[in-house]
Amino acid sequence: MTITTLSRQNIQALTPYQSARKLGGNGTIWLNANEYPTSPKFQLSGKDLNRYPEPQPQRVVQAYANYAGVSTENVLVTRGGDEGIELIIHTFCEPKTRCHFILSSDLRNVCSEC
């Protein structure tokens, strides 16, 4: 049994989104990332205030992978626990079925009507 076989069929069939930045784009305007093309006139102190943060900040991913002794491919950074739980539920629960996860002994059981 693998993580792939546990995930929903429609999730397995998805093609992952690849942003221009992730593909190695080197432009200065990232309209595909829904970002404002120029910094606001009231610049505070940084030239990149008009940029969204990296979806998977490599320094954070690498630091945690080193700490946990795992490959960076096994690390996912989320914007809080709720986002992580939502990703798990949407990946492994079929719609309109009941799903139960036991994440670890220090976390409560997560139950959801998907």
Task: Note down, in words, how this protein is organized.
The protein is an alpha+beta fold. It has one domain (21-113). The protein is 27% helix and 7% strand. It contains four helices and two strands. It has helices at 3-6, 9-12, 58-68, 81-92; strands at 98-101, 110-113. It has a two-stranded antiparallel ribbon with strand order 1-2. The longest helix has 12 residues, at 81-92. The chain starts with a helix and ends with a strand. The relative contact order is 0.10. Keywords: Aminotransferase, Pyridoxal phosphate, Transferase. It catalyses: L-histidinol phosphate + 2-oxoglutarate = 3-(imidazol-4-yl)-2-oxopropyl phosphate + L-glutamate. One of its GO terms (molecular function) is histidinol-phosphate transaminase activity.
Output mean pLDDT: 75
Beta-strand share of residues: 5-15%
Whole-Å distance between the termini?
22 Å
State the helicity in percent bands.
25-40%
DSSP summary: helix tally? 4
Quantity of strands, as a count: 2
Task: Give the overall shape, derived from the CA principal axes.
Answer: extended
H-E order: HHHHEE
Task: Provide a short characterization of the protein structure.
By secondary structure, the chain is an alpha+beta fold. The chain is built from four helices and two strands; from the N terminus they run ααααββ.
Features:
Aminotransferase_I/II_large, disordered C terminus, alpha+beta, two-stranded antiparallel ribbon, extended, 114 residues, 4 helices, histidinol-phosphate transaminase activity, pyridoxal phosphate, 27% helix
